[in-house]
Amino acid sequence: MSRQGSIFYRLLNSLKEQQSFGKSKYTVKKKAREEAIKNGLHGQDVFNAMNDAVFNAGIFSVQTYATYRNEVKRFADWCKSKGIKNKDFDKTKDMVSDYLSEKISLDQSAWSIKVARAALRKAYKDNSLANDIKIPERRLKDITRSRLERPDDKKINLDNYKDLIDFCKSSGLRRREVSAITANDIYKKDDRLYVHVKNGKGGKTREVPVLKNYQPKIESILEKAKDRGNERLFTKIPEHLDIHSMRREYAQERFIEIRGRRYKKHTRDKRDRKAVREVSKNLGHNRENVTVSHYLS
């Protein structure tokens, strides 16, 4: 049988058909929300309408496509290991639940199982696929990324990237956002430096305050960048540089700037909740509980 007819390539072709790179997820969600409200929907029904719209709109980023591609390859290989032939492709959809159940029995992380399910739902164009499988909740104690020393940390000489590291710690931007910043995106207002993010997650823009104790360093970086013209500040960002840990550090320092102390777990103080809301906004996160559990705790 030709490569075109293999399990993997049929799933891959389905993903390719749904490529919507550059399309704004935020715009899709906003339009779906407005339509749902206009049609008299409320609460969870509005949320479901937004999710359906995003699912049907395709795959928005190259990175997500690459992740889904790897996941469907793993599933296709698993199907072959179970004796499924390419000609039996129509049977594979019914095997997704068994595949996910096996991953759960192997004690794989909830996050990796959810990614696999999302990829296969997209490949089979079925947003309710494997709804019968209850995926374990992601436990905070299992999240070790950016909290412990990683082998990757030893693969690069951090002294060669001091400006980049200072910028990441001062602004809390995502890797992709950092790579797009130019000198013109940094400005001063009321003696405070800000970074203008033109195209954040979901296509959103935001204004990010630079941590005050980093301002002199960022101003120095900015001067060097202006000497080169309006080019990107950082043309090389090492793959193994743990940007996420710097986002976490920024979030914690930003909270201290606002409240004068570190975040207290299970706080009921309205001023703390307001500060969490501000930090979430600075990070470009919609959900404050994610900011608390992944960045402040």
UniProtKB/TrEMBL annotation:
<dbReference type="InterPro" id="IPR002104">
    <property type="entry name" value="Integrase_catalytic"/>
</dbReference>
<keyword id="KW-0229">DNA integration</keyword>
<dbReference type="InterPro" id="IPR004107">
    <property type="entry name" value="Integrase_SAM-like_N"/>
</dbReference>
<dbReference type="Pfam" id="PF02899">
    <property type="entry name" value="Phage_int_SAM_1"/>
</dbReference>
<dbReference type="GO" id="GO:0006310">
    <property type="term" value="P:DNA recombination"/>
</dbReference>
<keyword id="KW-0238">DNA-binding</keyword>
<dbReference type="InterPro" id="IPR013762">
    <property type="entry name" value="Integrase-like_cat_sf"/>
</dbReference>
<dbReference type="InterPro" id="IPR011010">
    <property type="entry name" value="DNA_brk_join_enz"/>
</dbReference>
<dbReference type="GO" id="GO:0003677">
    <property type="term" value="F:DNA binding"/>
</dbReference>
<dbReference type="GO" id="GO:0015074">
    <property type="term" value="P:DNA integration"/>
</dbReference>
<comment type="function">
    <text>Site-specific tyrosine recombinase, which acts by catalyzing the cutting and rejoining of the recombining DNA molecules.</text>
</comment>
<protein>
    <submittedName>
        <fullName>Site-specific recombinase</fullName>
    </submittedName>
</protein>
<comment type="similarity">
    <text>Belongs to the 'phage' integrase family.</text>
</comment>
<keyword id="KW-0233">DNA recombination</keyword>
<dbReference type="InterPro" id="IPR010998">
    <property type="entry name" value="Integrase_recombinase_N"/>
</dbReference>
